[in-house]
Amino acid sequence: MNAAPCKPIRYTQRLSQIGLISCAMLFSPLLIASPASDSIKLPAPLFAADFIQTDDARSRLGQLLFFDPILSGNKNIACSSCHHPEFASADGVALSLGDGGQGLGPKRIPVTGKNRPEQRIGRNAPALFNLGAKQFRSMFHDGRLEVDTQRASGMRTPLEDDMLQGFDSILSAQSMFPVLSPDEMAGHYNENEVSRAVRMGLITGPDGAWQKISERVQAIPEYVEQFKAAVPSIKQASDIKFTDISNVIAEFISSEWQAIDSPFDRYLLGDTHALSDIEQQGLQLFYGKANCVSCHQGALQTDHDFHAIAMPQFGPGKVARFESEPQDVGRMRVTGTPEDKYKFRTPSLRNVALTAPYGHNGAFATLDGVVRHHLNPAASLAGFELSAVKLAPLPEQDAKDLNQARLDRLAPELLAASELAVIELTNSEISALVAFLHALTDSRSGAGKLGKPQVVPSGLAVE
User: Fold this and answer.
1) Helix (H, G, I), strand (E, B) or coil at 262
2) From residue 416, how far is each of 75, 341, 412 by CA, in Å?
3) Which residue from 193, 188, 196 is spatially nearest to 114, judged by alpha carbons?
4) How far apart are CA 82 and CA 249, in angstroms?
5) Can you give the pLDDT at residue 189?
6) Which residues, at least 6 apart from 451, have a Cβ–Cβ distance to it below 8 Å?
7) What is the pLDDT of the chain when averaged over all its residues?
8) Is it true that the peptide bond before 117 is cis, omega within 30 degrees of 0?
9) pLDDT of residue 314
10) Residues 218-250 pLDDT 10s
11) Which residues are within 8 A (CB) of 280 and not within 5 positions of it... i.e. 6 or more apart?
């Protein structure tokens, strides 16, 4: 952005109140870091072979399970409730309502009565595009699920050595952890047999939550027949294991939301006319002056690493039930390493224009807003308005989730941890950069290939 005069008094007061640098310093050229490159090296294009192998019958079975509330503790929410084709495999809000909500996306509201949500989900529901790519070796915003060939399961997970074996991929293991979360799909305490098992710490084994979910699927004849047809090792209902359920859901996700036919993809394949002039200008900025490529590398625009970028803190965070202070320290909760505080996984930017809001907690509603935050996080934090955050409605939690004093108190710490240098771009350059981000859109993949089934074998309602 151009050097600019300070904003009105309210803005400068905010800078002073939360201990940030002065307005003059904020826009000083001495603080500008503008990495430049004489030549731009573009990534290799993506092909179907770069993804886990899928089978049509297994993917169609995974589709039914993905949309079926039978996998949730109270049988009232499905994977699709927060990852819906109507919202490009996400849900269009910063922080969602899981169990105890009804409706989809921005129209999802809490039910009344005993099953009302206790809190909003602490992190943004990420889009699912290209998660079947073989290069993904960690999942979730904090990477708490990672490939680890030294473990019997092949993965490092919050369950440690109690993790089941039999997941075909890390995507398979990822797709089933939400069923264990009380706020997402399991339900709370004594609401159902799954939530009770989770509460008692019973996840694997004959009395575990995963087995109880498997038994629900085993009891539905149509699912049994489809599993027998799609998975040769399954001969009878009792052969259906939790990992079988998870594996076919992963195949559905991988095949359903594969986005490799954007204008950028066609440009990488040699079509020099695939990008408009302004998109090509944005590409030059992305890989040059704006230095987006320092983290958003490769064909998926992610280095699969974790970085602190001073995202505003709000919402219930990611804390244990005994912790009273809302916070989200990100990667540090996984590693225990102070240097990892406030670090989150670099997201892939494929179809990013379809999946607002942005950030691990959905802080920014527009691409322009999140780009400007990356260019100057101090200015972004100083002017950040919590009232603009698009949260799922849960009025009784608003005072706690949208706490301006908490954000102001944390802002200096967030900035101290940030790895971002201030970069000066003009408004026209920012517009070009955003135009390039739009060129990462594979428009045919937004709604998925199979879409939403009209009915599911359990007979439960499909949202």
Assistant:
1) coil
2) 44, 11, 6
3) 188
4) 15
5) 84
6) 85
7) 90
8) no
9) 97
10) 999 999 999 999 999 999 999 999 999 999 999
11) 436
